[in-house]
Amino acid sequence: MHSVFTPLFFGAELHVPTADDIGTPGRLAEWMADSAVTVTHLTPAMGQLLSAQATRAIPSLRKAFFVGDVLTKRDCTRLHALAANVNIINMYGTTETQRAVSYFEIPSVAEDPTFLATQKDIMPAGEGMIDVQLLVVNRNDRNIPCAVGEVGEIYVRTGGLAEGY
Running DSSP on this structure, what letter comes out for residue 145? Predict the structure, then answer.
């Protein structure tokens, strides 16, 4: 619900597409451009629907927040092709915390046209939000932190989260 009330609290308008806008290939991008949407909150799957067969640019779009699944370089490239001014924010959150605990920002093409070329195929979870610490630990022994680039398990340390959860 915070994704509805927060924008309203700050005086923003909410624009909700119809089922046709979402289900008709290319229509979601047209709808966003016609509505002059500036901020969107999507899952990567919805972002793929947005870019599928899109023929209209969305110059008004400035921020796109992604959460709920793995965000790929391909997803970001497709959105940048539609919206050169959009900064993409990949947010990571666990079901247990019921909120995003980290973010990674991908600058717009207008701001930095080569940034995505420096990234791997999967966008990182990024850094912890305020008062959130992310730890990547060894899968077999959670007392051993992983080195940079090493695969492990993410542990979230923040107020209100039970120990060992």
Answer: B
Residues 6+ apart with CB under 8 A from 86: 58, 61, 62, 63, 64, 79, 80, 108
For residues 5 and 14, what is the distance between their CA atoms, to the nearest angstrom? 10
pLDDT tens track for 55-111: 999 999 999 999 989 999 999 999 999 999 999 999 998 766 667 889 999 999 999
Question: Angle at the Cα of 100 (from 141 to 36), degrees rounded to 5?
Answer: 150
pTM over 0.85: yes
CB 32 within 8 A of CB 40: yes
Residue identified by tokens 């793929």 is 48
Q: Which residues pair with 105 in a beta bridge?
A: 89
27-35 vs 44-51: helix axis angle to the nearest 10? 90
Share of the chain above pLDDT 90, in %: 71
Tokens at 68, concatenated:
């709920």
Closest by Cα among 53, 46, 37, 55 to 75: 46
